[in-house]
């Protein structure tokens, strides 16, 4: 009897997952709250079917999990706990791409008692080594980055505080200062120009990986050179604010949205550039011209 996998979610990272499983002969069930979204994904592959599933419905979630050999949770991390609890009950294995949260860590003993495996932070870290998915063609994009998962998640993650161990000392970097800490990182591939910066809290990895002798432990992200500077400008001018803006609820021209976010006197290029310059700093005139040009990708 072929193995079966329940794939929760139908976002950006779901398609390659289904492709790999389908090609391997695994029976895949794509489950999404919106049936049409699941059908759109499942329809591209053999051995694959779509179902509608609301993970907030505990009974329905438990029933779906019980029918499969392994559960792959690609939904927002806040729902993983409900998924793992249902998997513990059904004694089914779970795979996620998310970090091990305190709530997830708290389930460790229950997972072991159930005799199942729950694997988190699997694959290439979305914010860590995902430069390997950023092909050379992507370096010509505004951010030098091709979104392979939630664009909102990518950008908001750049505001997280960072903690790591350096020469035996705990280092803490505030989210708003993170992009300013990026440094050149040489991979050995001469055709690539990368920079690196810290990624969330790395202080627990010395214990988790049983490397007590390590004096420096940092989980980091690699990006093409120029990425941190543009992100810093976006943070400084308020583009990554999570505060709801009523004017964004309706279609609006890019320059008009920029004007409102900046509080500029008009949407003319001169007034927008002046407003941007009043809210952030640039290392040089060349850098200012490059970054301002990046902000003009939409008219």
Description:
By secondary structure, the chain is an alpha/beta fold. It is 33% helix and 16% strand. Strands 3-2-1-4-5-6 form a six-stranded parallel beta sheet, sandwiched between helices. A three-stranded antiparallel beta sheet has the order 9-10-11, with no helix packed on it. Strands 7-8 form a two-stranded antiparallel ribbon. The protein is globular. The termini are far apart.
Mean pLDDT: 89
Q: What is the gyration radius calculated from CA atoms?
A: 22 Å
Oligomer: single chain
Number of strands: 11
- How many helices? 12
- Estimated helix fraction: 25-40%
> What global shape is seen?
globular
Structural class designation: alpha/beta
Helix-strand blueprint:
Layout: E1 4-8, H1 14-23, E2 27-32, H2 35-42, E3 48-52, H3 58-66, E4 70-73, H4 80-90, E5 93-96, H5 102-105, H6 108-114, E6 118-119, H7 151-157, E7 162-166, E8 169-173, E9 183-185, E10 194-198, H8 205-208, E11 220-224, H9 227-236, H10 254-262, H11 269-279, H12 285-294
Parallel strand pairs: 1-2, 1-4, 2-3, 4-5, 5-6
Antiparallel strand pairs: 7-8, 9-10, 10-11
Helix pairs in contact: 3-4, 10-11
Describe the structure in brief.
Helices cover 33% and strands 16% of the residues. The chain is an alpha/beta fold and 299 residues long. Strands 3-2-1-4-5-6 form a 6-stranded parallel β-sheet, sandwiched between helices. The protein has a 3-stranded antiparallel β-sheet with strand order 9-10-11, with no helix packed on it. Strands 7-8 form a two-stranded antiparallel ribbon.
């Amino acid at each position: 009897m072929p193995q079966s996998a329940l794939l929760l979610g139908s976002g950006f990272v779901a398609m390659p997952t289904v492709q790999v499983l389908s090609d391997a002969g695994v029976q895949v069930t794509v489950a999404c709250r919106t049936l049409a979204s699941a059908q759109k994904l499942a329809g591209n592959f053999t051995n694959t079917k779509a179902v509608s599933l609301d993970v907030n419905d505990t009974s329905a979630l438990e029933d779906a999990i019980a029918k499969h050999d392994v559960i792959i949770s690609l939904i927002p991390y806040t729902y993983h706990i409900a998924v793992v609890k249902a998997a513990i009950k059904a004694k089914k294995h779970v795979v996620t791409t998310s970090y091990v949260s305190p709530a997830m860590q708290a389930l460790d003993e229950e997972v072991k008692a159930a005799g199942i495996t729950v694997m988190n932070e699997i694959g290439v870290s979305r914010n860590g080594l995902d430069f390997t998915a950023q092909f050379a063609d992507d370096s010509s994009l505004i951010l030098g980055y091709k979104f392979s998962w939630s664009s909102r998640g990518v950008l908001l993650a750049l505001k997280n505080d960072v903690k790591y161990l350096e020469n035996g000392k705990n280092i803490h970097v505030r989210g708003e200062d993170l992009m300013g800490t990026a440094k050149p990182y040489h991979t050995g591939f001469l055709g690539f120009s990368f920079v690196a910066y810290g990624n969330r809290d790395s202080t627990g990895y010395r214990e988790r990986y049983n490397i007590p002798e390590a004096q420096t432990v940092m989980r980091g992200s690699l990006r093409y050179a120029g990425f941190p500077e543009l992100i810093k400008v976006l943070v400084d001018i308020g583009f990554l604010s999570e505060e709801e803006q009523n004017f964004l609820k309706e279609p609006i021209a890019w320059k008009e949205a920029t004007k409102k976010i900046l509080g500029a006197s008009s949407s003319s290029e001169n007034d927008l550039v002046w407003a941007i310059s009043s809210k952030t700093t640039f290392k040089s005139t060349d850098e200012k011209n490059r970054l301002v040009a990046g902000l003009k990708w939409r008219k």
